[in-house]
Amino acid sequence: MAAQSARKLEPWQRRLFVPNYQVGEAAKYAKISAKTVADWHKVGARQTLSVREKRAALSYMQLIEVAVVAAFRRAGIRLNSIRNARDYISKELKSEFPFAEHRFKADGHRLVMDYQQIIGERGNGKVLRPDQSGQLAWEHILGRLEEFEYERRGIVVKWHIDGPSSPIVIDPRVAFGAPSVGGTPTWVIKGRWSAGETVEEIADDFGIDNSQVAYALKFEGIENGMWKWLN
């Protein structure tokens, strides 16, 4: 993806690599500490994520990598396994942001990916252990990272921040990648609420459900009175 020339990319694809998210925002969305985000980007022999200049904001691709690694950790995947997987996929597939550009699954405390992503249809039915230098195994029931949606080439194009059933998403094709609901940034909905509009008025104006407005306001820290719309 990163190797494609800019002239071949659509506008939203070019925005994938533009610094746009502060570390504090990334931490809030991924439900981890800002220190953890900074540590994962820290330069060293066992670096977890891509290099980030000091105090620089994260691009969409970097944000998604933070989100995916946070999901791995919640699934019980060890940090050393995550680092091994990143090293392997970065080299084998020449991928700058492997956790944002490829699909992964959790198998207990192990990390796996479909072998098809490496060799095409010939790999159907097998999975690869990227944290074990590409060791192969037969596919069985595996835990998927359901909060992420992928486009056909494998790139994460939608992240359901509060889980797969939540309407709050980050999508680089919508609202310049800001958290949104029904195509409307959550911060815009909060602004209308703060200006005195009701949930019903906001929902009617943007053509979304009352519950979507309530989810957006809850995401923005306004929970009082939202329960009746969320149940």
Question: How does this structure look, described?
Answer:
The protein is an alpha+beta fold. Helix content is 38%, strand content 14%. The chain has helices spanning 11-14, 23-30, 34-40, 60-74, 79-92, 98-101, 116-119, 186-194, 199-206, 210-219, 227-230; strands at residues 105-107, 110-114, 126-129, 135-138, 143-144, 148-150, 156-160, 169-170, 180-181, 184-185. Strands 4-3-2-1-5 form a five-stranded antiparallel β-sheet. Strands 6-7-8 form a three-stranded antiparallel β-sheet, with helices on one face. A two-stranded antiparallel ribbon has the order 9-10. A hairpin with a 5-residue loop joins strand 3 (126-129) and strand 4 (135-138). Helix 2 (23-30) packs across helix 3 and helix 9 crosses helix 10. The longest helix has 15 residues, at 60-74. It is elongated. The termini are far apart. Mean pLDDT is 83; it is low at 2-7 and 138-142.
In whole angstroms, the N-to-C terminal distance is: 41 Å
Strand content: 5-15%
Q: What share of residues is helical?
A: 25-40%
Order of helices and strands: HHHHHHEEHEEEEEEEEHHHH
Q: What is the radius of gyration?
A: 19 Å
Which stretches are poorly predicted, pLDDT < 50 over at least 5 residues? 2-7, 138-142
* Overall pLDDT level: 83
Number of strands: 10
Q: Tell me, what's the shape? A: elongated
Largest sheet: 5 strands, antiparallel
Class from secondary-structure proportions: alpha+beta
Query: What strand line-up does the widest sheet have?
Result: 4-3-2-1-5
Number of helices: 11
